[in-house]
Write a structure and sequence with these properties.
Two copies of one chain form a homodimer. Chain A is elongated, with a radius of gyration of 19 Å. Helix content of chain A is 34%, strand content 24%. Chain A has 231 residues and is an alpha+beta fold. In chain A, helix 1 packs across helix 2, helix 3 crosses helix 6 and helix 4 crosses helix 5. In chain A, strand 11 and strand 12 form a beta hairpin. Chains A and B meet through helix 1 and helix 2 of A and helix 1 and helix 2 of B. Chain A binds a DNA duplex (30 and 30 nucleotides) through helix 5.
DNA sequence: CGATTTGTTGACTCTAATCAAGCGTAGTGG
DNA sequence: CCACTACGCTTGATTAGAGTCAACAAATCG
């Protein structure tokens, strides 16, 4: 009816950036192929600490060493959409433009490697293999973003199933999944509410598809059901 | 309740690829900065003709000269998600991997410039400016994909408003928008049904926000309303 | 240990999907 | 030129699924 809708403004507590002073050690940044070892400094971030904010100048490119990171955008009415979760080994924050297009926060206490964007770009100028690697990171993220889009047109069951399978693949866990993120994070990633996520998980447990060992420890008991929902 | 859901299988008519023999002319491919003019051949595609299919080897990179193109994925139950619309000047089909991750079709009779991927990549190897341009194309597409994600968590009104504003920005039309795509295309882009798209447009007309001159000719009468919904 | 956050469950609401019918326009062929 | 058909679009009635609001349970943290 076009009237200004009354919206649920979820309280977004903007966490204060709590950067501890970085240790002086350096570690290799892009070393997948073994061909390039650019150095960066590992920086610790507390749980919920902001790593960078939307529209802030993009100064570094980041790689998760330990922990987990979420990138997200917030709509003016408070709705938050989590674009991606980044786990150890994942690179994030690589932008073409001058500014970051989303915010990034540590989900749990994490260690993140920082490399100056300018250094990376300057090297890429002279090194076509590095240039290709940078492009490759962006292209993979594009693929992920497109997969994410496919998620958002599915039913709640299908979204949660896809999420569980994605995490099972990416979290190298034996046995049960050890999720670093809260129900709110999952909900904001899947475009659902925490209640729906919770109910769907309970439902999966009811059909013996999963087992909720603890709220963040989930064992996948029947992947075939999840795979069918994921198709 | 986890039972195999009965799904509406929309009849997807896979269009036969109707490539007319390409004219021998060549035109510049990437010429934004004026620095690179790689040649390619313009190829005509009939309305609804397939340009490439999902999982097909990615042999070319494409640039729309005339007309409009949609890229999409289809879920196993027939639901189609349109990832993007490409209009004259837009580049599409640039993939990192060997195969296309989505299908592409001409929305209306179109002319598309083709450049061999291998040629582009080989040149990029030696030319860091071209390498950067290729990366830039992918990065822009990533940005668009992320914007698209934000769309999909919004209400029907907000999605349609965003769509109208996007098209108004991208279609260089004086006065009214001349949409090349059907309601079904719009619905599949916005993650809605044609009925909801239609109803929402009617609703916008009811509040004098837009005017439906013809089903595909739409005049935006009150952008402030649309902008407010787009926030 | 109490306090606070995080997660679950229930009752109810509401938005968009579904099902179904009808309209308008474009294209076809007599 | 006018039926006739086909398709794309609109509109209406009803339903289903996720959201909202609220209470409570469980886990975590000082």
């Amino acid at each position: 009816m076009l009237q200004t809708q009354t919206v649920q403004v979820r309280q977004i507590v903007v966490p204060r950036e709590t950067r501890k002073s970085p240790p002086p050690t350096t570690t290799s940044f892009l070393g997948q192929t073994g061909s390039f070892e650019l150095n960066g400094m590992p920086m610790p971030f507390d749980r919920n600490a902001e790593i960078f904010g939307e529209d802030e100048p993009s100064e570094y490119v980041y790689k998760v060493i330990k922990g987990a990171v979420r990138t997200y955008k917030v709509l003016n009415d408070g709705r938050r959409q989590i674009n991606a979760f980044f786990l150890p080994g994942d690179v994030f924050g690589l932008e073409l433009g001058k500014d970051h297009r989303c915010s990034a926060e540590a989900i749990v206490d994490s260690s993140v490697l920082l490399v100056r964007r300018t250094v990376l770009f300057a090297s890429a100028e002279r090194n076509s293999e590095l240039a290709r690697q940078l492009w490759s990171i962006t292209a993979r993220e594009l693929n992920r973003a497109q997969d994410h889009t496919m998620l958002l047109i599915k039913s709640a069951q299908e979204r949660v199933a896809a999420f569980l399978l994605e995490m099972s693949r990416r979290l190298s866990g034996e046995g049960a999944l050890e999720l670093p993120m809260s129900r709110q994070d999952i909900a904001d990633y899947l475009g659902l509410t925490i209640e729906t996520v919770s109910r769907t998980l309970t439902q999966f447990q009811g059909t013996a598809t999963i087992e909720l060992l603890a709220s963040r420890r989930i064992a996948l008991r029947d992947r075939s059901v999840l795979n069918r929902l994921n198709a």
